[in-house]
UniProtKB/TrEMBL annotation:
Disordered: annotated span: 32-64
Stored PROSITE patterns: PROKAR_LIPOPROTEIN
Listed Low complexity bias regions: 34-59
Keyword Transmembrane helix: no
Phylogenetic classification of the source organism: Bacteria, Bacillati, Cyanobacteriota, Cyanophyceae, Oculatellales
Tree of life domain: Bacteria
InterPro entries (alphabetical): FAM173A/B, Methyltranfer_dom, SAM-dependent_MTases_sf
Molecular functions (GO terms): protein-lysine N-methyltransferase activity
All residue ranges annotated as the Methyltransferase domain in the record: 85-197
Protein name per UniProt: Class I SAM-dependent methyltransferase
Cited Gene3D superfamilies: Vaccinia Virus protein VP39 (3.40.50.150)
Amino acid sequence: MRLNQVFMLIVASAGIVGMGVASCQPQRAFDTEATAPAQTSPAQTSPAQTSQPASQPQAVDRDVPYVPTPESVVAEMLRVANVSQNDVIYDLGSGDGRIVITAAQEYGARGMGVDIDPALVQQANDRARQAGVSDRVQFVQQDLFETDISEATVVTLYLLPDVNLRLRPKLLEELRPGTRIVSHSFDMGDWEPEQVTQVDGRTIYYWVVPEEIPASLRS
Ligand SMILES: C[S@@+](CC[C@H](N)C(=O)[O-])C[C@H]1O[C@@H](n2cnc3c(N)ncnc32)[C@H](O)[C@@H]1O
């Protein structure tokens, strides 16, 4: 994991407007973020804002650092995606599992989370048990680029701009038409979202996989 990636997520997490970042591609995404988000509980606090770092073993070679999505943003992501009990939700890079667990708790959805970090996978499965939804959700240690996502009806992301772009062809090839995709903070380049919303200074992007994939979006 590169230092500038850590910095980018921390900046996105803090919602700092117009902050210059070493990588040029993400600048547009950061520019859409508004003022600092509400941080109302320890669970919502980013690693940069605590003296106790979140689980982040050095041995894990991840594409994106662990920064949890605030609960208010989780709620809005699920609302935007119109999640219901008929859905199968996949969170790619699932952290402590909050998005999938909330989808099961609040909407009765089934779900799967994948994360490269085994400690986070264990934490997520523990949280699912505590929440009483472990019959409907599961978390597995896996590289999100290797995950079979074909069963998903909703995919959630809180990654990074370049990771979203690398993931885009997989999303478009493997997901069925009509599958909804929701991304916290970061867009997918020239794949125009159907909806963009803001909550607590965060931007949420929403796409639906089309029947016909334009050639320009395949790479
Ligand atoms: C910004 S956090 C988002 C966590 C959660 N989705 C949320 O919104 O609260 C990104 C997560 O992706 C995981 N991750 C990074 N690279 C990954 C990879 N190649 N495969 C699976 N997970 C990965 C990290 O361990 C981290 O938990």
